[in-house]
């Protein structure tokens, strides 16, 4: 049986467009957007969302948020080039890391980090690579930098590779990043070595995600396609077409049977990985859908859009 | 009424003929005879009529009363296996009619009421038997007329129109209604119903018409020179198709009359008869005479137009049709022909569009006129056009479904017969060969295979397709389409509707329609609207440039005809490229040289006719659809299909489609251009350039396509450079250019601008040229009309939606906010832009610049940060 999504509710929760949304546990949500705030919500019994806390501090739009698997710590990255780490229980700011201008974009927690030592990765924007951060009791430090191979020079000037997206494999061994020029790179986390490039995109790859078994990688690209790659062989397995504009985000279902994509065409699409077809298209949003995410047990989906709303769906 | 009554003799093949005037005096005697021979009740009815004709009302009543008895019905049903319900209704109604006749004859009010009461009783008895019988409703209507209640009678007759007479459709409802209307002096309405009756049953007029004809003939014999009679008779003959008689009658009528109106009518009938006989020269002379004598009559003009068409003189034909329409704006036939004639001529189309809308709304069931309406309004009112097309499509679908059901039923019946014949022949074979059952089986099989190969025409002699053999299935479908065009919606309609859907953004629906076309592809023809699929790449080509000279051409594009819009769009791209070039002159020498080259060839654009347009013109001519043309159409369809796939984001599939077309027809330049665009969309500029180069090579003499290819190439070159060099002040520079242009252009351009704006507003959001909005907004911004500029930018933003030009608009938008001192909004917009494209230097520069200004500003008034 393939999955179906049912819209639970659509709520305008930010003053401006929402650019990122993640679940912190099965019924709590973290969102960030253009209005510079990071908001934490709880889904009540009646399905409506109650605001737990609004985290202020960023001075330009919040590009990306991620929540640690413990559900207690979150990180956010903003256009002001600052990464902030928050304690979701005490609402305290655990750390704030300032990077050079435009040198941070997406942020992702490593699955193997624990309460004592948090590891997370940020897509490094103009620095052309991925930065790995380690956060101890006191403060964070950068412990590794994974650089993309230098792009071909054109007229004596190296082309810039703005790195937009980053994702850990669920087993914690691999890390993938996507860049503005369509480069998708695969790294080994332990050795911080580049394993290779995944070919097929020439346009910005704004979101990517490993399948739950860590064997496949899904990439969402401005070329209106979601590509599925075999991680081990670094081979293109399938190219999903159906969005009629940029695909902005992608999220696999924890069961590994299907995945969801959100696009600039304001649509959220559910795809079956078995038949490799689009099995459902949801049109609750009126503007581009910047972020989609399943909760840990796969019973809920959230989508966040430039129309200032998030939509929650049940998935069965 | 039959002169003899045929009484079938029980259990033999003999029939006893009983002359009507020799019926026995005693009805009981006759009934005994009928009962003995178990004659059907319809014979009883005939007998009753015979008695009535002989004036024996009592006998008539007796038979009728016997006939409606319950036990008679039971007996008949037992014997014939069918309830004689209709016959019994006939008896009841006959009794009612008799009573009504008596009521009419009597002057005593009391008696009259009694008769009418009896009639009403008979009718209600009849109604109990079958409330849906037309005869009863008719009787009730008559009763109401006798009571003087014409209004209710009319209702009753109206009901008759939808009822059936003994299960058969019958025009008697129309006739009754027409008679009633005639008596109440509503001649026009009456005429309408007479016409309907004629329309439904022209070949064999039901009794009313036959009676009418008989009366006319009698009138003719009484007074062979009565003009009215002659004219009427000519009309009847015309309807019945007896053209020779028409000629004689009309000529003698003409000799006998002095009145111009009547003579005109005679000329018209004469002309129509001659027309039908194929004597065109004489017919057209007579049409002309008729038109001269009665200039207000539309029909002679229609006839003349048909004559002109026959000679191939389209222009004169449409003039005649227009004359006809002037006097009769809703003249359906004329409209239909005219619509087909002026399909390509937009200004004329606009003139008659109003008439068409009126006519179409009156003819909801005529797919033809809706299609023509859609075709005519495609350029000026695309949403209305789409609506019309949808309506036509729905009608066609219904027709197709009906036809399919019919065919299916026919096939079922045939196969049933075939099975029976096979089994009987097998049985016969078995009998002939005694015990040799193998032989019998073989002969049966032979027989069967014979039937199989000599199958219905739609399957031909090909063996039945294997399961899953899609190709064979497709071939069969195609064969079926050729043999049974009525089974398929015309590909032309599907394609045109799809094109309009594409233009209004209904991609998936359009796609579904085009998929539908495939089975009936063979008989497709494309109409000029398909050109619009090729316009958009041209408009897109312009895209990147900042065009100040666009407006006047865009205006022409809006108002201009569909056919010429491609050329206009090409011209726009020329101008646009040049201006874009000027702005960047020092930096982009390569692009510039390309553009200058295209500029040189642009002079020829207006005169040159692109190959595709030519093909389309031929196809809209339509009369000689040969083998060669159908290839053109098929390719156009395939192109549209791929174009849709491209628009829906299935770039790989679209590219495959284009390449397939190119394999078959390497000269289809649009395909190269689209392949280049698709490659560009995929972010592969090198490949895109390659395709564009190929397009350029292929275009050769075709300057319009060459211009397209060069524009695209220059855009690609420019995009590549754009990324490499920083243009922090592009915006300011472009705006200055724009401002200069506005000042130099003077009032004329402002008028044009306003017209474009009005046209865009009037199109109700249908126009999908966001570039136009950007330009208009830029103009407004330069004129410091911030509110207008902001509104237009927002519209452009909505239109672009899924386009990578969004960021450009966002930058303009922020500039507009910035200029109008709404810094907070400007910042928001810039943030959006930078979030979409963080690697974009302009945005980053602008954000930095803006932030600097804001920080300064905010320090002063301390309201921010």
UniProtKB/TrEMBL annotation, chain A:
SMART domains: WD40 (SM00320). InterPro entries: SKI8 (IPR051510), WD40/YVTN_repeat-like_dom_sf (IPR015943), WD40_PAC1 (IPR020472), WD40_repeat_CS (IPR019775), WD40_repeat_dom_sf (IPR036322), WD40_rpt (IPR001680). WD repeats lie at residues 55-96, 163-197, 198-239, 240-281, 282-316. CDD domains: WD40. Keywords: Repeat, WD repeat. The keyword Lipid metabolism does not apply. Pfam families: WD40. PANTHER family: SUPERKILLER COMPLEX PROTEIN 8, WD REPEAT-CONTAINING PROTEIN 61. This is WD40-repeat-containing domain protein. The lineage of its organism: Eukaryota, Viridiplantae, Chlorophyta, core chlorophytes, Chlorophyceae.
TrEMBL record, chain B:
Residues 405-481 are annotated as: Disordered. TPR repeats lie at residues 171-204. Residues 422-449 have a biased composition (Low complexity). The keyword Repeat applies. InterPro entries: Ctr9, TPR-like_helical_dom_sf, TPR_rpt. SUPFAM superfamilies: TPR-like. Pfam families: TPR_8 (PF13181). This is Uncharacterized protein. Keywords: Repeat, TPR repeat. Residues 405-421 have a biased composition (Basic and acidic residues). Gene3D superfamilies: Tetratricopeptide repeat domain.
């Amino acid at each position: 049986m393939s999955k179906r999504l049912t819209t639970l509710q659509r709520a305008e929760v930010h003053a401006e467009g929402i650019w990122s949304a993640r679940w912190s546990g099965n019924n709590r949500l973290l969102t960030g957007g253009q209005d510079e705030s990071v908001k934490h919500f709880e889904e009540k019994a009646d399905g409506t969302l109650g605001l737990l806390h609004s985290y202020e501090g960023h001075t330009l739009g919040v590009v990306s948020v991620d929540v640690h698997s413990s559900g207690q710590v979150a990180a956010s990255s903003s256009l002001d080039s600052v990464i902030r780490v928050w304690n979701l229980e005490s609402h305290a700011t655990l750390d704030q890391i300032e990077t050079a201008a435009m040198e941070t974009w997406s942020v992702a927690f490593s699955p193997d980090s624990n309460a004592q030592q948090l590891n997370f990765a940020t897509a490094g924007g103009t620095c052309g690579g991925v930065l790995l951060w380690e956060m101890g009791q006191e403060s964070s430090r950068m412990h590794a930098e994974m650089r993309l191979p230098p792009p071909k020079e054109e007229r004596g000037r190296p082309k810039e590779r703005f790195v937009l997206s980053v994702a850990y494999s669920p087993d914690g061994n691999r890390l993938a990043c996507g860049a503005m020029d369509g480069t998708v790179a695969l790294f080994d986390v332990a050795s911080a070595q580049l394993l290779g490039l995944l070919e097929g995109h020439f346009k910005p790859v704004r979101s990517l995600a490993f399948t739950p078994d860590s064997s496949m990688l899904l990439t969402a690209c401005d070329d209106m396609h979601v590509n599925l790659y075999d991680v081990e062989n670094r081979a293109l397995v399938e190219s999903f077409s159906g969005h009629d504009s940029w695909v902005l985000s992608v999220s696999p279902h924890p069961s590994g049977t299907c995945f969801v994509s959100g696009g600039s065409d304001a649509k959220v699409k559910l795809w079956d990985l078995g038949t490799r077809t689009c099995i459902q298209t949801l049109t609750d949003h009126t503007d581009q859908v910047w972020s989609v995410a399943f909760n840990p047990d796969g019973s809920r989906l959230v989508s966040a859009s430039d129309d200032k709303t998030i939509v929650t769906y049940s998935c069965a | 009424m039959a002169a003899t009554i045929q009484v079938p003799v029980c259990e033999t093949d003999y029939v006893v003929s009983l002359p009507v005037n020799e019926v026995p005096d005693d009805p009981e005697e006759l009934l005994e005879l009928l009962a003995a021979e178990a004659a059907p009740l319809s014979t009883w009815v005939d007998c009753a009529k015979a008695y009535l004709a002989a004036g024996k009302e009592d006998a008539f009543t007796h038979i009728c009363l016997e006939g409606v008895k319950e036990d008679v019905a039971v007996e008949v049903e037992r014997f014939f296996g069918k309830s004689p319900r209709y016959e019994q209704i006939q008896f009841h109604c006959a009794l009612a009619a008799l009573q009504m006749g008596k009521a009419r004859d009597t002057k005593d009010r009391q008696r009259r009421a009694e008769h009418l009461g009896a009639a009403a009783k008979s009718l209600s008895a009849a109604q109990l038997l079958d409330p849906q019988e037309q005869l009863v409703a008719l009787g009730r209507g008559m009763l109401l007329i006798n009571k003087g209640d014409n209004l209710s009678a009319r209702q009753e007759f109206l009901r008759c129109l939808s009822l059936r007479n003994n299960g058969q459709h019958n025009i008697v409802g129309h006739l009754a209604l027409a008679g009633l209307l005639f008596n109440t002096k509503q001649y026009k309405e009456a005429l309408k119903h007479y016409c309907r009756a004629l329309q439904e049953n022209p070949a064999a007029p039901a009794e009313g018409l036959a009676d009418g004809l008989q009366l006319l003939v009698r009138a003719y014999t009484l007074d062979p020179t009565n003009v009215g009679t002659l004219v009427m008779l000519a009309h009847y003959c015309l309807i019945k198709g007896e053209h020779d008689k028409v000629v004689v009658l009309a000529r003698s009528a003409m000799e006998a009359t002095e009145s111009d109106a009547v003579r005109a009518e005679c000329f018209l009938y004469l002309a129509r008869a001659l027309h039908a006989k194929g004597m065109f020269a004489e017919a057209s002379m007579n049409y002309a005479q008729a038109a001269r004598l009665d200039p207000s009559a539309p029909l002679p003009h229609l006839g003349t137009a048909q004559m002109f068409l026959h000679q191939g003189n389209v222009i004169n034909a449409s003039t005649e049709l227009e004359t006809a329409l002037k006097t009769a704006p809703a003249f359906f036939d004329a409209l239909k022909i005219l619509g087909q004639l002026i399909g390509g001529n937009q200004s004329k189309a606009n003139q008659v569009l109003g008439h068409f809308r009126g006519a179409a709304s009156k003819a909801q069931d005529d797919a033809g006129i809706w299609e023509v309406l859609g075709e005519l309004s495609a350029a000026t009112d695309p949403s209305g056009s789409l609506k019309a097309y949808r309506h036509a499509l729905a009608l066609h679908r219904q027709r197709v479904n009906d036809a399919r059901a019919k065919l299916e039923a026919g096939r079922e019946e045939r196969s049933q017969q075939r099975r029976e014949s096979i089994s009987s022949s097998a049985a016969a074979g078995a009998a002939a060969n005694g015990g040799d059952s193998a032989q019998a089986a073989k002969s049966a099989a032979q027989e069967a295979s014979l039937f199989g190969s000599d199958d219905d025409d739609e399957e031909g002699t090909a063996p039945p397709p294997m399961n899953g053999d899609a190709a064979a299935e497709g071939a069969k479908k195609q064969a079926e389409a050729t043999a049974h065009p009525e089974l398929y919606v015309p590909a032309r309609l599907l394609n045109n509707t799809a094109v309009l859907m594409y233009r209004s953004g209904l991609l998936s629906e359009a796609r579904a329609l085009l998929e539908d076309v495939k089975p009936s592809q063979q008989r497709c023809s494309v109409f000029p609207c398909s050109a619009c699929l090729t316009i958009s790449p041209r408009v897109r080509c312009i895209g990147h440039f900042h065009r100040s000279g666009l407006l006047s051409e865009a205006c022409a594009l809006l108002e201009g005809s569909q056919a010429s819009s491609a050329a206009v769009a090409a011209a726009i791209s020329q101008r646009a490229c040049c201006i874009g070039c000027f702005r960047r002159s020092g930096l982009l020498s390569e692009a510039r040289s390309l553009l200058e080259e295209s500029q040189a060839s642009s002079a020829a654009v207006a005169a040159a006719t692109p190959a595709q347009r030519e093909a389309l013109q031929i196809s809209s001519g339509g009369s000689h659809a040969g083998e060669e043309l159908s290839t053109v159409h098929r390719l156009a369809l395939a192109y549209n299909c791929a174009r849709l796939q491209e628009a829906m984001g299935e770039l790989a599939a679209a590219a495959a489609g284009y390449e397939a077309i190119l394999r078959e027809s390497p000269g289809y330049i649009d395909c190269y251009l689209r392949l280049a665009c698709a490659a560009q969309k995929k972010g592969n500029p090198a490949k895109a350039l390659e395709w564009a180069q190929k397009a350029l090579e292929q275009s050769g003499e075709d300057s319009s396509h060459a211009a397209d290819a060069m524009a695209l190439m220059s855009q690609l070159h420019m995009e590549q450079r754009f990324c490499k060099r920083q243009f922090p002040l592009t915006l300011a520079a472009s705006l200055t250019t724009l401002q200069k242009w506005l000042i130099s252009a003077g009032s004329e351009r402002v008028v044009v601008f306003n017209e474009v704006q009005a046209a865009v507003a009037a199109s109700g959001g249908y126009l999908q040229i966001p570039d136009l909005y950007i330009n208009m907004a830029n103009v407004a911004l330069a004129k410091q009309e911030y509110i207008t500029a902001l509104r237009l930018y927002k519209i452009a933003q909505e239109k672009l939606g899924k386009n990578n030009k969004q960021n450009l608009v966002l930058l303009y938008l922020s500039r507009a906010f910035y200029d109008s001192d709404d810094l907070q909004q400007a910042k928001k917009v810039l943030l959006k832009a930078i979030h979409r494209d963080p690697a974009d230097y302009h945005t980053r520069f602008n954000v930095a610049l803006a932030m600097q200004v804001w920080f300064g500003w905010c320090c002063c008034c301390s309201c921010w940060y």
